[in-house]
Amino acid sequence: MVMRGGVLLLLLVHAVPALCQEKLETKLVVQQGGREIGREEFSFRQGRGQGQPGSTLIAAARYPATNPNTRLAATLERTPEFALAKFQLDVEGPSGTTVILAAGSGARLIVRTVAKGSESGRELPGGPDVLILDDGVFSLYSQVADLATPAGRPLTAIFPRTGKRASFTARREAGNGGSVTLSGDIAGTLVTDGAGRLQRLELPAQQTIVSRAE
To answer: In Å, how far are 71, 88, 154, 178 from 74, measured between CA atoms?
Structure first.
């Protein structure tokens, strides 16, 4: 597949390790079936690289929390309109490290995967209602809260590490702070704090609960 030169160049320019070089402010506990399976830390700040407007989320997760065999590091940059500007996910596991890069290009989403001895790229439908999530980096769900509406907004999530695609609706609950109800391929509830950072996420179908560490 031929990828647009400008977007491909952007991905290559940003193909640097996302492993965090800064202190992460917020800690999450990931439980499945009532048992802790991992931990995540993240920071959220205004502004993007090179002083551009928007926001940046940097996260690091480990599974299990002690002596992890899988580590994930993610960087998500979005424009002031919440559109994807840059995404990078580094996955470190027993078989080595895989780097996944993504960038928006109008109505298209360009995704590139770089692993030891292999590279691949693909174009996917994009747009303002498409966001990138991951089954191991749950702070990314804060994007859903930003896009949710009281009437319910249809969204599409792409999980580039697994290739999964999910259609769901995000409805912001009236008079309940940052609470959002999810229905469809992704069903559950999420709560964000006053700064828009993930505070709690419940996904009953996966028996997964993500909460702030005390």
So the answer is: 10, 6, 25, 23
Query: Do 121 and 12 contact (CB within 8 A), yes or no?
Result: no
The low-confidence residues of the chain, meaning pLDDT below 50, are: 1-20
Identify whether the C-beta of residue 166 lies closer than 8 Å to the C-beta of residue 188: no
Nearest residue to 5 via CA among 116, 121, 88, 160: 121
79-125 pLDDT tens trace? 998 889 899 999 999 889 999 999 886 788 899 999 888 888 888 88
Instruction: Name the pairing type of β-strands 84-93 and 96-105.
Output: antiparallel
Match 């109008």 to its residue by tokens: 106
Spatial separation of the C-alpha atoms in residues 40 and 20, rounded to whole Å: 12
What's the pTM?
0.87
Return the domain boundaries, the chain. Answer: 5-207
Dihedral sign for Cα atoms in the order 169, 124, 105, 42: positive
DSSP SS3 for 117: coil
Opening angle at CA 176, ends 36 and 191, nearest 5: 25
How much is the CA Rg of the chain, to the nearest whole Å?
16
